[in-house]
Amino acid sequence: MPPRFLETEMRPFGCSIAAMAAVLLLTAFLPRTAEAAITLTQRGCQTYASWSGNLVWARDLGADKEKARAELVGLDEKTPANIYALMLRNLDSLWKTTANWESVTLVILQDCINRRGTYESGT
Q1: Do 60 and 101 touch, CB atoms closer than 8 A?
Q2: Over pLDDT 70: what percentage of the chain?
Q3: pLDDT top residue among 5 and 55
Q4: Burial group, residue 78, by CB count within 10 angstroms (0-12, 13-18, 19+)
Q5: Which ranges of the chain does DSSP label H, i.e. alpha helix?
Q6: What is the Cα–Cα distance from 111 to 109, expressed in whole angstroms?
Q7: What pLDDT score was predicted for residue 82?
Q8: Angle in degrees, CA 55, 98, 29, rounded to 5
């Protein structure tokens, strides 16, 4: 039987894994609103992950979802087929997730790297 202090330290790690898995599943399987094919550079992946985490953080502080959507739409109109389009695709998932902003940032960055920054229509 492992020492008791190891059992308590492993619980937060398990919760983080579960939260990251939930975000990834939500991001992968919920309907999308924007349909443009998008390719991001490494820096673009970092920015996309950071902005997504910031959106979850703002939500936790009481931000208004429709105001956030309107701002993303405005930014996407200025520079279409970029991180703002991806965030619009995933806004509902980001807003509903129970994961914290750090987990969201990590999962989205890893997903973007795994995709080599390529997001096809509807992904």
Answers
A1: yes
A2: 67
A3: 55
A4: exposed
A5: 4-29, 42-60, 65-78, 83-96, 101-114
A6: 5
A7: 83
A8: 85
